[in-house]
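Practice record 12: protein with protoporphyrin IX containing FE.
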Amino acid sequence: MTQYEIVLVKRSWRTLRNINPEILAGTFYGKLFTERPALRRMFPKEMSLQYQKLMDMLNTIIARLENIDTVDDEIMNMGKRHLGYGVKKEHYGLVGNAFLWTLEQGLGPDFTKEVKQAWMNCYNSLAQKMIR
Ligand code: HEM
């Protein structure tokens, strides 16, 4: 990611992180499970804790984007835990699409082409580290 992309991601996350996790993360998982219903059973019945965990992890990672190396170990460990959940390499594309779609709903006209590109780079580098 470039310095400018980091600025764009941080700026848009400041808007999104204040949205109630039930709504923001709920929208994300809703989209994911609509696109691929089979994924629902990988997750717990009650999703509130999962919503909070996802938001907390995104807060941590986005806060440290300019020194991402300092969270590399945490990202690698998260990737390992995902293997244990039965997550496959192919799933990351589906999750990325549902995530970008959710950002678009949350940001509306602020989800410009360059903001989208910045988030795509952010997600892809995160996903690549987890997969590795
Ligand atoms: C960049 C991509 C992703 C991020 C940042 C992320 C983040 C998280 C976090 C923070 C947790 C909480 C538990 C933990 O930290 O281990 C979690 C759990 C989980 N994630 Fe992900 N995830 C990602 C990709 C995926 C993908 C591609 C799938 C595939 C469907 C997936 C499925 C799951 C499942 C099944 C759980 C465990 C639910 C449970 O049993 O409690 N995640 N994820």
